Amino acid sequence: MLTSLREHASSWVFKALLGLLIISFGAWGIGDMFLGERDPVVAKVGGVNITASQLNEAFRDEIRRAQSMVSQPLDTEQAKQLGLLDSALQRMEDNILFSLGSRDLGVVISDDVLRQEIAREQAFHNAQGQFDPSVFQQVLSANGFTEASYVARMRLDLATARLATAVTAYVPVPSQMLDAMYKYHAEQRVAEYVTVPKSGAANVGQPSDDELQSFYKDHANQFTAPELRSATALRLDPKALAEGTKVSDERLKQEYDSRAQEFTIPDRREIEQAVFSDEAQADAAAKAIAGGKSFADAVRDASGGHVSVVKLGTVEKSDLLNDISASAFEVKPGTVTAPVKSPLGWHLLHVVREEKGRIQPLSEVADKLRSDIATKDAQDSLYSLSNKLEDTLAGGATLEEAGKRLGLPVTTVTRIDARGMDENGHPSPIASEPDLLHLVFQTSQGQDSQLADIGNGAYGVVHVSQIVPPQVRPLADVHDEAVAAWQADKRAKAAHAKAEAFVEKLKSGTSLADAAKAEKLAVKTTPAFNRGTHDSETGLPLSLTARVFALKVGETAIGDSNDGVVVARLKEIKVPDPVKDPATRDQVSKALSQSIGADLMDEFVAGLRDRYTVTVHQDVLAQRF
Predict the structure, then answer these.
(1) Domain identity same for 319 and 414
(2) Which of 191, 281, 483, 561 has the fewest CB atoms within 10 Å distance of its CB?
(3) The domain containing residue 326 runs over which residues?
(4) Count of beta carbons in the 10 Å neighbourhood of residue 571
């Protein structure tokens, strides 16, 4: 399945290819395989359709990407409010536009280039790290490709990448812009500061009933319970299906024979080497070894101590450079090769010991083969099961009934939040399955979701039976929490008032040291920092760092930190000198070039949108999302 392909592929080629596959699946992929007529078109770009299932997959990718940055879960509504649905749709539209543009502009990828890129892809390499046609065919077959379809899409993807590079490469930066941006980014400032602790106002007392009620009302968002959902989930999991698969001895033997090369362990040798730049030194060392000197002593003496012995460890012949591999595996263990030349110099290789190669017997790899066969059979059965599931649901069956008929596991969750936690704060059975959890929170009440990828090669469908919207919890239920929040608010306000009074003292002429001493506050000085310096280095809260760059020397600003309120006074401005700091200027130049390139790319995409008609079916979009 697609997840298997993702696990094996790490290059930009594969990542870009998978982006194109999202577009192309409408013609022959997951939409037809699983969803049939229930997958309406949400947008059309130059005659190419984007279906609901394709957009749903891209939307979930956007959510996962956003969650990795904010380190907290996002439900569907939050993601839509953040514009992630629009971003996913635009990304898909842009991919199609570039595909069409590269085609119509005649961007051509030669067979030689295509062959090199495919051979370079690690997913198609064997255990020796070499391109293997049989592995290539196995990977394509496991992921539903023919060689022709894969090559065609690979060619289109490479053409698209080259078109994008042509638009953004070698962008010049105007000198006046560079000078101004360099000064902005490289300018440094030094500030003195004190922190007025919030804990200083310890005795804020207890709120009256009216004060607490008013605070509770004004800060209702602090006491609002999240949206809760009840749902049923059904999984199509190859691993679970594989557990009950029995593999005959005959089939096990056939699999073993077909993968014989995989279980052939080649000869291995423990080798140490010395590489000389001078042939004469290598010859001298070889003669000294023949005369009885140890390998290490001969290398040291011949090179005058400039060449070291490097232990290569236990290696196979294919692990070594072609120039030296034959010699290393021809000499007897315990001996040293004659000097051998490679692009790196002259090698002497000492073979410490050897491990003879062998073929692992069937008994040694039987468990692995059984597992591989069972998993492959399970993956192959997903197509049939998905059709049966769709037919069963179309016939009016509930998910529970469908699961019982098809022997598929069904899980029910009651009133869980977007993190997968129940009302008591305990994790639900799907709390550790983020993709399935997201599916629950992007499906409407009373509806079955589409069958979707939920990670690790599995697919899932959910039925949402209840949605409880976010609601403010009664004050009686959050009384202690509300009192604590009221007290914290009072302490924060008291600290702010004290900080503002401190600033007034400075404005009246009191020195920072005297004002701090009177209030028993410690004066600290920041290191020189620029606009990009992290707050952990400056000691100032991030919001205050930005304000410091708007101050004149001697002026003050106030900002909140976790512990209290910080009062900072600008002490010094350090004007940058590009002659003394060329590295930073070069960094700014590169960043500007990339930014201008991005603007050019936006203009290019806008031109493509003018050339190819883009139609979005807002009614379908609203209904499905």
Answers:
(1) no
(2) 483
(3) 267-356
(4) 16
